[in-house]
């Protein structure tokens, strides 16, 4: 029988790797462009198929997680994504680059429907574990910008993919030797923790759909654009890729703190109570950030990251609380299919908006999108009961 703490630790590490691997290219592209003789706006769209696969693949991987084995799927995740990262470091042409990034996206699609369902099944306090898991994912985002900047500057962009790829394969082998196929008969039913009135189900689904699309698109756009945004707007502070990575990592630390705090709040308060005030952060800060630079931009970006990452924790807890064990991976697969498909489209949208008006136009556009997050929080129904975990 699996030790719950050990399984959760591996799943947390997988969340770190999942986001880290998907964002290496966003930081490395600044160095890769001159090396491959291509402009930023020309090279960035090659990441789009990988981000689309990140979401679309979750429909299949979530089904396999429920019908086959979540443990086996996680073994495939670790080894597959590790080898895919290594393959990016070997590319010689833009076509090969697109194919290798697509492979990362396909294997990365395993984590969220399968790993998040495992967290719910093994968690004692759902909100806390979701918050901690979110911190690990956020640290993956932060570390990707930091480590890729340092490795790219001193060893070259190829090693920014080689090194984490090799370490991920090794971790996958340790996971395979340490965790056995799960017995779901004794798993907790987190869905019993919250209920809403039957007539309000449509409001729950609509609110979740709106906020998932808006937050996923904004989240991905910000994380993809942040290295380039800082390179342009923090020029008076530094031009060092490594130091820019440190600043980006520092910004993401605030997101990690927010996810942990939001997770603990979700164990004490209803989803709507936590979600509503959080929803008012993004739109005004995105609008302000469009014209800011240097230190004021960093401060505004901290608020944006806190709002976006906090909402991600709310979304995951919402699905975990309202879905039963036997089809929880599939519920998460739908949630992430919608979210990551929208996120995949955001990569091309960032490049398109950047070409037409720079980051000012991009940030104004996404500020408008974030107004829908406020609407979703308002129509979100209140829980009518809260039962403890079995």
Tally of extended strands?
A: 0
CATH superfamily: MFS general substrate transporter like domains
- How many whole angstroms does the radius of gyration measure? 20 Å
Poorly predicted regions are 189-193, 386-390
CATH topology: Growth Hormone, Chain: A
Estimate the global geometry from the Cα principal axes: globular
Count of discrete structural domains: 1
| CATH architecture descriptor name | Up-down Bundle
Give the % helix: over 70%
Main pleated sheet: none
**Name of the level-1 CATH class:** Mainly Alpha
* Strand content range: under 5%
- Determine the structural class based on helices, strands and strand pairing: mainly alpha
Task: Output the number of helix runs.
Answer: 15
What distance lies between the first and last C-alpha atoms, to the nearest angstrom?
19 Å
Can you describe what's shown?
Helix content is 79%, strand content 0%. It has 390 residues and is mostly helical. It has one domain: Growth Hormone, Chain: A. The C terminus is likely disordered.
Explain the layout of strands and helices:
Blueprint (H helix, E strand, L loop, with lengths): L3 H33 L3 H4 L4 H20 L2 H19 L5 H15 L2 H12 L3 H29 L4 H20 L22 H33 L7 H26 L4 H9 L2 H8 L4 H29 L5 H42 L1 H9 L11
């Amino acid at each position: 029988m699996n030790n719950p703490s050990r399984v959760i630790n591996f799943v947390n590490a997988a969340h770190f790797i999942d986001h880290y691997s998907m964002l290496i290219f966003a930081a490395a592209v600044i160095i890769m462009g001159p090396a491959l003789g291509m402009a930023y706006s020309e090279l960035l769209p090659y990441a789009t198929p990988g981000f689309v696969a990140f979401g679309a693949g979750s429909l299949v991987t979530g089904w396999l997680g429920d019908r086959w084995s979540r443990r086996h799927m996680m073994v495939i995740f670790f080894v597959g994504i590790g080898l895919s990262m290594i393959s990016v470091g070997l590319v010689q042409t833009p076509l090969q680059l697109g194919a290798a990034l697509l492979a990362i996206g396909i294997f990365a699609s395993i984590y969220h429907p399968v790993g998040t369902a495992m967290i719910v099944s093994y968690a004692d306090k759902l909100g806390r574990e979701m918050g901690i898991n979110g911190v690990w994912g956020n640290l993956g985002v932060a570390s990707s910008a930091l480590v890729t900047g340092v490795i790219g500057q001193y060893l070259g962009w190829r090693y920014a993919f080689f090194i984490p790829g090799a370490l991920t394969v090794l971790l996958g082998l340790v996971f395979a030797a340490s965790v056995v196929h799960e017995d779901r008969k004794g798993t907790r039913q987190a869905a019993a923790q919250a209920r809403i009135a039957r007539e309000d189900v449509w409001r729950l689904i609509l609110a979740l759909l709106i906020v998932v699309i808006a937050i996923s698109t904004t989240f991905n756009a910000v994380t993809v654009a942040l290295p380039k945004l800082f390179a342009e707007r923090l020029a008076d502070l530094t031009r060092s890729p490594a130091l820019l990575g440190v600043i980006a990592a520092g910004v993401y630390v605030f997101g990690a703190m927010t996810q942990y705090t939001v997770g603990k709040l979700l164990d004490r308060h209803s989803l709507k109570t936590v979600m509503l005030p959080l929803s008012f952060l993004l739109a005004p800060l995105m609008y302000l950030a469009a014209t800011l630079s240097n230190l004021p931009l960093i401060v505004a970006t901290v608020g944006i990251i806190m709002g976006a990452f906090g909402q991600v924790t709310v979304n995951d807890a919402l699905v975990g609380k309202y879905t039963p064990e036997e089809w929880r991976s599939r519920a998460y697969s739908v949630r992430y299919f919608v979210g990551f498909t929208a996120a995949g489209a955001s990569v091309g949208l960032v490049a398109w908006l950047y070409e037409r008006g720079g980051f000012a136009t991009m940030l104004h556009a996404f500020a408008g999108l974030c107004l829908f997050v406020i609407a979703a929080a308002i129509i979100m129904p209140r829980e009518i009961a809260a039962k403890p975990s079995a």
